[in-house]
Design goal:
- The chain has 189 residues and is mainly alpha-helical.
- It is 58% helix and 8% strand.
- The chain has helices at residues 3-16, 20-28, 31-40, 44-58, 93-97, 108-112, 116-123, 130-138, 143-155, 165-174, 178-188; strands at residues 63-67, 77-81, 99-101, 104-106.
- The protein has a two-stranded antiparallel sheet with strand order 1-2. A two-stranded antiparallel sheet has the order 3-4.
- 23% of the residues are buried.
């Protein structure tokens, strides 16, 4: 087992050893944050991780969850520092329609095109595709409108988190839209 994996494994064990609500009240200093975490996170493990991520963000150490690699830890997750937003700031529909790049602008919504279904399933955590199907029927199979609706839901926090360029790029890569992902990555650095 490599040393990074060992440290992550120890962190996981430590997370199991405390009552997240008690610690969270002291770290976050906000009962509303505790209530939000309780309501929005499905498992105790997710609640602990969300509480720690919120505390780190308050302290200026922004983190994200990524899959662990290698060894016996394969399949688990760990927190790593997240890059701050690039020079463009956070994603928005306006930016997604005209993302400044070296070669002009990229209309991300148009470029996703008919691949909205696969992309939407990944971005909205819509495993069985029912939400994307509902958006299809609501927007009369117009690819641009469906893609815009998918992105709008995500921007409202109804999908993969955090709402960041890195998350968007990851969903594009999952949907095998790698060229577009590369272009967005270059434009947002």
């Amino acid at each position: 087992m490599d040393s990074e994996c060992s440290m992550d494994h120890l962190l996981d064990i430590a997370l199991l050893a405390f009552d997240w609500k008690s610690v969270g009240r002291r770290l976050l200093n906000s009962e509303q944050n505790i209530e939000d975490i309780s309501r929005n996170e499905p498992s105790e493990e997710n609640r602990r991780e969300k509480m720690l991520m919120m505390w780190r963000a308050q302290k200026g150490v922004v983190t994200k969850m990524v899959p662990r690699g290698g060894g016996s830890c394969n399949g688990a997750h760990r927190m790593i520092p997240e890059d701050p937003p690039g020079p463009l700031g956070e994603p928005s529909i306006a930016l997604l329609m005209a993302l400044p790049s070296r070669g002009g602008t990229i209309n991300v919504i148009q470029r996703i095109g008919v691949n909205y279904s696969t992309f939407g399933i990944f971005l909205l955590n819509d495993d069985n595709g029912t939400l994307v199907d509902a958006l299809k029927s609501e927007h009369l199979l117009n690819a641009e409108n469906i893609t815009t609706a998918i992105l709008q839901r995500w921007l409202e926090g109804k999908g993969k988190t955090p709402v960041s360029w890195a998350t968007l790029i990851g969903a594009l890569r999952q949907a095998t839209l790698n060229t577009l992902a590369d272009q967005i990555e270059a434009a947002t650095k």
